[in-house]
Structures are given as structure tokens and as C-alpha cells.
Amino acid sequence: MATQADSTPAEPSGPAGSVADPTPGAGGQNELRRDLNARHLNMIAIGGAIGTGLFLASAGSIHEAGPGGALVAYGVIGFMVWLLMQSLGEMSTYLPLANSFEAYGTRFVSRSFGFAQGWNYWFNWAITVAAEIAAAGAVVNYWAPDVDQRLVALVFFAILFAINAISVRAFGESEFLFASIKVITVLVFLAVGVLMIFGTMTEAPGTKNWTTGQAPFVGGFSGIIAIFMIAGFSFQGTEMIGVAAGEADEPEKTIPKAIRAVFFRILIFYIGAFVVIGFLLPYTDPRLVNAADGDIQASPFTLIFEKVGVVGAASVMNAVILTAILSAGSSGLYVSTRMLYAMAQKGMAPRFLLKTNRRSVPMPALLLTALVALGCYGLSLLSSDAYGWLVAASGLAGFITWCGIAWSHLKFRKAYVAQGGRVEDLPFRAKWYPLGPVVALGMCALVIVLQNKDLIFEGTVDPGGLLESYIGLPLFLAVWAGHKLVTKSKKVDPLEADLTRTRSHS
Q1: Domains recognised in the chain with CATH numbers
Q2: Fewer CB near the terminus (10 Å): N or C of the chain?
Q3: Is residue 85 within 8 Å of residue 238, measured between CB atoms?
């Protein structure tokens, strides 16, 4: 079996070989430490799926597509994410690596594809950290309108950096806390909503909000398509479990549990929330537009809590949303740092990024990522247009990562079987293979194509808007093609793919 430029000695193993990293938590010099346990991984996966996309963007989705259209759009995208998590679960359980997306692309597709995937993912979340910094200032402004939002953003940034600089355990515990707050909020919301629907706390609304105006499907098929991208953004971050696997204790046990629960999280938190909102709020409510623009007081969660007399509902939801932003910012800084560190191990990033401190935190990678995020935030203050382009490119980068997961999984399973591995010996087997990753890949590609709905449905061509919508795709292809041109890398032969399970995290 071929081994591609691994920087550390590998365990002698074949496709059905020894357990990856049989000495969890052993971390030596310049190595990560496996300090994330099952509850951390579960909450990281949950935290990635619950954020402002649910608390705020859900309002705009219902307003634009109606309750039925929003439910269908989020249900379809949720199903796609579940398929992707099945693919990721199979690979990350067999090969729990901190640079998972780059490593899988490198090992099973081509070195150039892996290179592009790694930098794409780093870019995605480094920019996202900047966006979360900016959002924190706006959220705190609700309570303290006279406070300089730039100062708030810097304080917020310092907190994110400190959480990540202390240790991976500190990150895991903070994410557990942040995600717990979000989960409790959603569960209370669902419980209150169900009681209201059945007339226990207020007069039963019946089905009138599902039949008023154009409901339940406002705008028909185009209305559903219009919010596919919004739904996709809401679920981005679920894949972080693939990166966290590189520092997971007993990944063969903890990762499958976290992956299997994804479907139920999506079902309960998103589908359940949209059903409740659909019954209790008409899509014609003008306040829903304001929520989509960031008005906390118009969040569907706030409006429904206020209906049952929750004192200070807006302040409560503002606090929850601030927690969601903290979670997203901290997680973004974590995964982008680990991706940069792991790429340095493979010679795809400068070697100085390999250094870790005594707590096994890759500080140079953390500092560089933090500086880039802070620089992008600074750019947002100088030029909103330039920053808007960065955010647009970052958003599309998430879907490119998802495409890479599905494609890598197809190549992984093919290589595994070609080299004599038995599917039944895999620590975790993805459901519906090969249909699952094929469907997920096709759906991701479709969402990318449909991002500019004005062009697709109205034939309206705005060169600036068109470029902003799709800028992330040519950037990714340019990095991929550029690396291939320089290195002359070839696609990986299934019989020569690196299936070695190592003690390292690279």
C-alpha cells in the first residue's frame, strides 16, 4: 500500500488494520492531544447546526417561501447534510485526522484537490470568524447603543482567542456550554410552541397560517429554490466534527454516536421549529423581514415567547444569539487553526506553523489565523463592498467543502475495496452507499448553480452580482489548477491510495 509523504511513522496496517491512534491523548512535541470526549463531539456537532440561521434567518425564509416552502427547503437541505455526515462519519472514524478534508482529498482524489480543499476550508472559517466579530458588536449594541461596536468586537475577539489558546479541552468545554444554552432554548421554544398550537397557553391558531394568502408555498418552486442557499448556510458547521475527530478520544466510539444523532437533531431542531413557527406566525407578518435583517425583537423565537408573556423575551433571545455567535466564532477559529497546522505537516503550508506549546495548542497557526480574521474585520470597516465579496466567497466555500466530502467518500470506498478491505469491517458504514454520496454531491452542485436566482429564474444579468455570487468557485478551481500545474500531481489510483492508519494526526 502506498504512503504519500506522511511526516510521521505509521502503524503497519491495511484496510482492515489496527485502530487509528491506539494511544489517545499521548501528544508529543508538536503534536495535538486527543482531549475531546463523546459529550464534546456531540455538542460540537449540535453547535454547528444551531445558530443565527435558525434564530433569525428562519424569519426571512418563511416570509419568502411560506411555511410549507421553508419546511421543504430546510428538510431537503437537512437530508443532504445527513447524507454528507454519513460519508464523513465513515472516513473520519477510519481515519480521524485534524486535516480531514484536505487529507481525504489528497489520499483518495489527488494531492492538488486536497491542497485546494484544505486552503478552501481554512479561508471559509477564517472569514467567518471576522463575520462573527462584526455580528457581536451589533448584538451587544441592542443593550448598549452608545458603546463603540469596534471596541465590543475587539473584546469579543480576545475572548475567542483566549478560549482557543488555553487548550483543546477549554475549547471543548466552552463549546459544550454554548451549545447547551442553544439546545435548551430550542427545546423550551418547541415545548411552548406545541402547547400554544393545542390551545393550552393561548387560543389554538388552527391551520389558518398555512392557508392564508399564497401559503403554504409562496412563490412555488422558485420560492423554495430561493432559500436553499440560506438553508445551506444554516447547516454549515456540522462538518466540524470531521476536524475535531483529530483530537477525539476513542474516535471509533465517539464519532459514530455523534454522526448518528445528526438526523434527529435536524428533525427536532429545524423541522420542529419551522412547524411551530408556521402554525403560530403568518408569513405575511411584516416583522419577519426585520428579523432577517438582524432585528432581535422580530425574531420568530422572540415573537412567540412574547405571546405567552415571557418578560424581556427580546433580551433573552439576544443573549442566546450572542451565545450562538460566540460558539460559531470559537469553532471557526478552532477548525481553521487545526486545518492550517495539519496542512503544514504535509508541506502544504509553511513549516513554522507546526509548532505547538506545552498544552499542545498550535500557537503559530492560531496567531496567523487570528491575524487574518482580524484583518478581514478591519477591511469590513474600510470597505463594506470588498468585505461583502469576501463573505460571499466564504459562503460558497462551505458548499465546495461539502462537494469534496462526497467525492472523497466515493473514492475512499472504492480504494478500500480495491485493496482488499471488507465493508463489514469498517468502524462505521455510511448508509445508502453509493447512492448517498452521489445524491449529496449532485444536490450541493445544484445549490451552487442556483445561488444567483435572478439569473436562473429571471434571466437578469448583473455582472457585479454574478461575480459576487460565484467568486468562490473560480478561486477554488484556480488554486486546484495552479497546484496541479506546478506539481504535476495525478489522480490517485485506487490500488495505490493511502489507507494507512497512523498514530499521528496528519
Answers
A1: 38-488 (1.20.1740.10)
A2: N
A3: yes
